[in-house]
């Protein structure tokens, strides 16, 4: 849309925001934006998944019980689920970049303190706080990247952003292979400082790199425009144009942008009552009649894909070791899994040998590499195939893998099927892209964070429920997964592709 407005001196061309941001072109600024946002995204995965890699060492040094280990493994996800809604509100009112800066700073601080935990409960509390604060990076980066792109390039670059999640699965085990086998016994503040504590401290590197990058980024011009800061938004677009093209900022062809309004502002809060009213006003639009069913669909889809993928991924290294041990015996996958219950609950409960399973780390790196390849395929086919079509295709692949697992006895085929089934979590990136396009700017971060909050609650539920039933009722669990994915396929057919709210 382009309007011709006349004033007393000369005609002024007024562009829509999508036209204006498209004229900045894609270049150096956007590549740097992708790197910075990717580091923030990697920090989320590193902080939430890192605890699983050091659990054997923590269990022995802090003498954690089985119940405490379960709390420790899920504390970060509980924190993310509890704070996501509030973080979405802050991102829509205080700004995407500002919220991300505070999020990373507080999360890294919680990690540093947790590295000096003197008992299990101190570690549980600060891992919960880390998840509580790191949730800002969980969904805000989608809005951050999306609002610097036009409709023409947004989908591809938001999808490419998700590549950094499996990249973290390569970074984490690689770091573990280097750090965790180290044998040293240093006393700091009267406390033994061992390898898993050093692992925690080095793990914050991603957060600090992301924070340093965020300090160089401006607020998104679309957020500025929605909050009535036309001149600031235009100046930001001019700067982006100059960085991408090497041309002078004043040569940016856009002189005026259609002003968008409707965003809430923290400056309007003068007490607790105002804060709750504003949170309510930001939340309720998600459930307006024209959005309610779509919000439910997006949230439920994320709950399921993260629940299944996270639940299986948590137990995959253990299952893999058992499959290797019984390879060649002609046993089907569920026969092997069903025989593991006593081994998991009793034999390894008191294992404090201090040895590190390097093979597990190598397998995690391999899975991370496979998932990265899948995301690249997503990014370069999503515009051709369509978001919903690509989502349905991948859901069908995962559904078939869950079904054929019942009859697989060959080792390689079983590993491939399980890996592809766990890649169901990669569909969360496509669903996130659909969410970005569906919610208008003034509630975009709130909508994303709400959906991600439900998704991370799915991670907590899946991690506990699948572990509880998989080893006793393997066949039933995988048939249930087939049925649930089939339900997702039906829901995917009515997901809100290419629908955008108009004021």
Descriptive notes:
By secondary structure, this protein is mainly α. It contains 21 helices and 5 strands. The protein has helices spanning 17-22, 28-61, 66-94, 96-114, 120-146, 151-161, 164-179, 195-203, 205-214, 221-226, 230-245, 272-283, 292-325, 333-338, 341-347, 358-385, 387-404, 411-422, 427-438, 444-469, 474-492; strands at 2-6, 11-15, 186-188, 191-193, 256-257. The strands form 2 sheets. Strands 1-2-5 form a 3-stranded mixed sheet. The chain has a two-stranded antiparallel ribbon with strand order 3-4. Strand 1 and strand 2 form a beta hairpin. The model is unreliable at 1-11, 263-272, 342-347 and 499-503 (pLDDT under 50).
Brief write-up:
By secondary structure, this protein is mostly helical.
> So how many helices?
21
Rounded to the nearest angstrom, the distance between the terminal CA atoms is 14 Å
Strand order of the largest sheet: 1-2-5
Note the main sheet. Answer: 3 strands, mixed
Low-confidence sequence ranges: 1-11, 263-272, 342-347, 499-503
* Inertia-based shape: globular
- Secondary-structure-based class equals mainly alpha
Q: What is the C-alpha radius of gyration, as a whole number of Å?
A: 24 Å
Number of E-state strands: 5
| Beta-strand content bin | under 5%
The average pLDDT score comes to 80
Helices and strands, in order, run as EEHHHHHHHEEHHHHEHHHHHHHHHH
Helix content: over 70%
Strand-helix topology:
Blueprint lengths: L1 E5 L4 E5 L1 H6 L5 H34 L4 H29 L1 H19 L5 H27 L4 H11 L2 H16 L6 E3 L2 E3 L1 H9 L1 H10 L6 H6 L3 H16 L10 E2 L14 H12 L8 H34 L7 H6 L2 H7 L10 H28 L1 H18 L6 H12 L4 H12 L5 H26 L4 H19 L11
Parallel strand pairs: 2-5
Antiparallel strand pairs: 1-2, 3-4
Helix pairs in contact: 2-3, 2-5, 2-7, 2-8, 2-9, 3-4, 3-5, 3-20, 4-5, 4-9, 5-20, 6-16, 7-8, 7-16, 13-18, 13-19, 13-20, 13-21, 16-17, 17-18, 17-19, 17-21, 19-20
């Amino acid at each position: 849309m382009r309007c011709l407005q006349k004033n007393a001196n000369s005609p002024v061309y007024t562009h829509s925001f999508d036209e204006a941001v498209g004229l900045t072109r894609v270049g150096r600024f956007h590549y740097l934006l992708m790197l910075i946002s990717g580091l923030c995204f990697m920090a989320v995965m590193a902080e939430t998944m890192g605890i699983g890699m050091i659990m054997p060492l923590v269990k022995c040094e802090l003498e954690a019980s089985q119940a405490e280990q379960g709390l420790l493994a899920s504390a970060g996800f509980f924190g993310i689920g509890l704070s996501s809604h509030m973080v979405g509100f802050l991102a829509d009112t205080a700004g995407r970049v500002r919220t991300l800066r505070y999020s990373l700073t507080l999360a890294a601080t919680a990690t540093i303190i947790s590295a000096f935990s003197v008992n299990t409960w101190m570690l549980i509390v600060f891992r919960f706080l880390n998840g509580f604060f790191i949730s800002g990076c969980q969904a805000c980066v989608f809005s951050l990247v999306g609002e610097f792109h036009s409709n023409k390039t947004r989908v591809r670059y938001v999808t490419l952003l998700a590549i950094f999640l499996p990249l973290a699965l390569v970074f984490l085990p690689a770091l573990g292979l280097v750090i965790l086998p180290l044998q040293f016994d240093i006393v700091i503040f009267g406390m033994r400082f061992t390898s898993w504590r050093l692992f925690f401290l080095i793990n914050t590197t991603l957060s600090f790199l992301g924070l340093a990058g965020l300090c160089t980024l401006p607020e998104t011009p679309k957020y500025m425009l929605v909050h009535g800061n036309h001149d600031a938004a235009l100046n930001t677009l001019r700067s982006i144009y100059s960085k991408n093209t090497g041309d002078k900022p004043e040569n940016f062809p856009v002189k005026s942008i259609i002003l968008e309004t409707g965003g809430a502002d923290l400056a309007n809060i003068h007490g607790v009552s105002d804060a709750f009213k504003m949170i309510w006003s930001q939340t309720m639009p998600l459930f307006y009649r024209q959005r309610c069913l779509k919000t439910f669909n997006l949230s439920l889809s994320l709950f399921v894909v993260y629940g299944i993928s996270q639940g299986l991924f948590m137990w995959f290294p253990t299952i893999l070791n058992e499959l290797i041990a019984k390879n060649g015996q002609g046993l089907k996958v569920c026969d092997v899994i069903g025989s593991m219950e006593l081994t998991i609950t009793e034999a390894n409960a008191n294992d404090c040998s201090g040895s590190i399973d390097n093979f597990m780390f190598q397998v995690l790196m391999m899975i991370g590499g496979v998932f990265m390849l899948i995301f690249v395929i997503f990014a370069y086919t999503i515009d051709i195939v369509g978001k919903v079509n690509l989502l349905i295709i991948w859901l069908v692949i995962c559904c078939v893998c869950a079904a054929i697992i019942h009859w697989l006895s060959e080792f390689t085929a079983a590993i491939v099927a399980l890996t592809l089934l766990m890649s169901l979590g990669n569909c969360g990136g496509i669903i996130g892209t659909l969410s970005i396009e569906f919610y208008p700017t003034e509630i975009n971060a709130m909508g994303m964070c709400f959906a991600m909050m439900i998704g991370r609650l799915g991670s907590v539920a899946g991690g506990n429920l699948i572990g509880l039933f998989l080893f006793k009722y393997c066949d039933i669990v995988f048939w249930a997964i087939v049925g649930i994915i089939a339900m997702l396929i039906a829901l995917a057919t009515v997901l809100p592709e290419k629908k955008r709210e108009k004021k």
